[in-house]
Amino acid sequence: MAWVQIRFAVNSEYVEDISDLLVEVGSQSVTFTANDKDEAIFELFPGDIKYWQTSTVVGLFDAATEMQHIVDILKDQDMFQGQFNCKIEQVEDKDWEREWMENFHPIQFGERLWVCPSWLPIPDPEACNVVLDPGLAFGTGTHATTALCMLWLEQMDLTGKTVLDFGCGSGILAIAALKLGAKRAIGIDIDPKAITASQENAERNNVADKIEWYLPEDAPVFETDVILANILAGPLKELKEVICGYGHTGTELALSGILAEQGDDVLNAYKDLANMNPATQQDEWVRLDGAIK
């Protein structure tokens, strides 16, 4: 089954209320962890339930869930006082934060592109190798949505082109584009942890001098020759003008993070902005690609 998760911060006094609300609106599980700036609580007496001053909440949902509806419900809660910030992301096929080093092996995409974990030997030193350690960021190549984008990139001639990775996660797509011959790459993500992971992976792959990473509010005005957006169907539709605004007539476009049953809706959303090809499917997910009008 395909999953997405929503992640946001909440004050400790509201954790039980928010847990009940998330379950009520369809969350399959709710977990709480320490916010980055808070210290963990170690000494608990029997029967005590204590939380950090600010907790990071993660709610897990079926990927077909209309997540904008969930966001709207959360925004309306008095506890957030109109200041609700969250990140919605796909969930890897396995929890690589726990199983990463035991289970991840080099993966080949097409004839010339490999993704290799940083702690294992590279199978083909002559290939285009992306050496990866995603940390806490999404994107290892194991998920169908990322794999669909990697296969699309591998088939392209990127020589001399500028590539945008919108929702860059671990930076895997931007780095792969550079390895495949792109001149310059730009990554944008709303999560500072993704920016950190992407920069570390760029340095690991010796391409940091050809790539720039931005939070959306810090991104400059620019145009690119190739755009990849591996996020989710809802944000793809909502941000279509923003995404296509980074291109020009003829810019090649690939959209991923879309369940098969959502493909037609996303195609319809982009039909006035781009000439789109039929969907390419892997497992429950599809990639839509084409060129901006």
Task: Detail the topology: elements first, then pairings.
Blueprint: E1 3-11, H1 15-24, E2 29-34, E3 54-62, H2 67-75, E4 86-90, H3 96-103, E5 107-109, E6 113-117, E7 128-132, H4 144-154, E8 162-166, H5 172-179, E9 184-188, H6 192-204, E10 211-214, E11 226-230, H7 233-238, H8 240-245, E12 252-259, H9 263-270, E13 274-276, E14 280-282, E15 285-292
Structural features:
single chain, 293 residues, alpha/beta, Alpha-Beta Plaits, Rossmann fold, Ribosomal_PrmA_MeTrfase, ribonucleoprotein, SAM-dependent_MTases_sf, EC 2.1.1.-
Structural class: alpha/beta
CATH architecture of the largest domain: 3-Layer(aba) Sandwich
Given as residue ranges, the uncertain stretches (5+ residues, pLDDT < 50) are 37-51, 95-100
> For this entry, what is the oligomeric state of its chains?
single chain
CATH topology of the largest domain: Rossmann fold
Q: Taking all residues together, what is the mean pLDDT?
A: 86
The beta-strand count equals 15
Determine Rg (CA atoms, Å): 20 Å
Largest sheet: 8 strands, mixed
Instruction: Give the proportion of residues in helices.
Output: 25-40%
Query: What's the CATH first level of the largest domain?
Result: Alpha Beta
Function: Methylates ribosomal protein L11.
Organism: Psychrosphaera saromensis
Family: Belongs to the methyltransferase superfamily. PrmA family.
Subcellular location: Cytoplasm
Report on the structure:
- The protein is of the alpha/beta class and 293 residues long.
- The chain has two domains: 3-90, 2-Layer Sandwich (Alpha-Beta Plaits); 144-292, 3-Layer(aba) Sandwich (Rossmann fold), CATH 3.40.50.
- It contains nine helices and 15 strands.
- It has helices at residues 15-24, 67-75, 96-103, 144-154, 172-179, 192-204, 233-238, 240-245, 263-270; strands at 3-11, 29-34, 54-62, 86-90, 107-109, 113-117, 128-132, 162-166, 184-188, 211-214, 226-230, 252-259, 274-276, 280-282, 285-292.
- The strands form three sheets. Strands 8, 9, 10, 11, 12, 13, 14 and 15 form an eight-stranded mixed sheet that branches. The chain has a four-stranded antiparallel sheet with strand order 2-3-1-4, covered by helices on one side.
- The radius of gyration is 20 Å and the shape is globular.
- Keywords: Cytoplasm, Methyltransferase, Ribonucleoprotein, Ribosomal protein, S-adenosyl-L-methionine, Transferase.
- Methylates ribosomal protein L11.
- One of its GO terms (cellular component) is ribosome.
- Its main location: cytoplasm.
